């Protein structure tokens, strides 16, 4: 193979090779002195930032889990309180219904007693009225009967004698 026919860039001579090596060494030295530390610092800072972000994400995840647990605990407590409140409301309702029923029973008993007393009073009044009407009718009937029987003087005298005899018999018995 003949290297003489190749372009000069592919077959550099010794001077060009020296200057290229020197330029590479200078650039490499500058990079080692100034570039790599800056790049390493940036990579370390980025690594720290990523680690901190992961740590914060993990903490946030833990906090979120804690918040979920607290939320579930609060929900459970709220459910228990709701059940307790509903139970108390049911007991209060039952108590109020019982009190209302008892009050209704008492009121009905009182009304029944009042009605009985009113009926008894009206019964007594009716009996009194009937007695007074019967007595009035009896007097009217007796009056008419006596008028008919005592229409003559002889009948009146006979009646007076008979009544006097009954009175005298009654006084002798006593």
Q: Could you please describe the fold and organization of this structure?
A:
Helices cover 90% and strands 0% of the residues. The chain is built from two helices and no strands. It has helices at 14-149, 153-173. The radius of gyration is 67 Å and the shape is rod-shaped. 0% of the residues are buried. The mean pLDDT is 88.
Structural class estimated from helices and strands: mainly alpha
The total of beta strands comes to: 0
Q: Outline, from the CA principal axes?
A: rod-shaped
Tally of alpha and pi helices = 2
Question: In percent, how helical is the residue content?
Answer: over 70%
Uncertain residue segments: none
Measured distance between first and last alpha carbons: 188 Å
| Rg result | 67 Å
Q: What's the pLDDT, averaged over the residues? A: 88
Strand content: under 5%
Give the biggest beta sheet.
none
Q: Return the string of H and E elements.
A: HH
In a few lines, what is going on in this structure?
This protein has 174 residues and is mostly helical. The chain is built from two helices and no strands.
């Amino acid at each position: 193979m003949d290297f003489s026919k190749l372009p000069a860039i592919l077959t550099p001579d010794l001077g060009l090779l020296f200057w290229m090596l020197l330029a590479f060494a200078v650039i490499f030295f500058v990079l080692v002195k100034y570039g790599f530390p800056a790049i390493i610092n940036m990579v370390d800072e980025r690594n720290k930032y990523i680690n901190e972000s992961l740590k914060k994400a993990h903490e946030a995840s833990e906090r979120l889990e804690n918040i979920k647990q607290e939320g579930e605990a609060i929900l459970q407590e709220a459910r228990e309180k709701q059940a307790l409140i509903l139970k108390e409301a049911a007991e209060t309702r039952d108590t109020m219904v019982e009190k209302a029923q008892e009050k209704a029973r008492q009121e009905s008993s009182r009304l029944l007693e009042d009605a009985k007393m009113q009926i008894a009073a009206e019964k007594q009044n009716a009996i009194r009225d009937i007695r007074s009407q019967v007595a009035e009718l009896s007097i009217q009937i007796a009056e008419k009967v006596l008028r008919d029987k005592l229409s003559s003087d002889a009948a009146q005298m006979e009646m007076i004698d008979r009544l006097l005899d009954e009175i005298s018999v009654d006084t002798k018995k006593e």
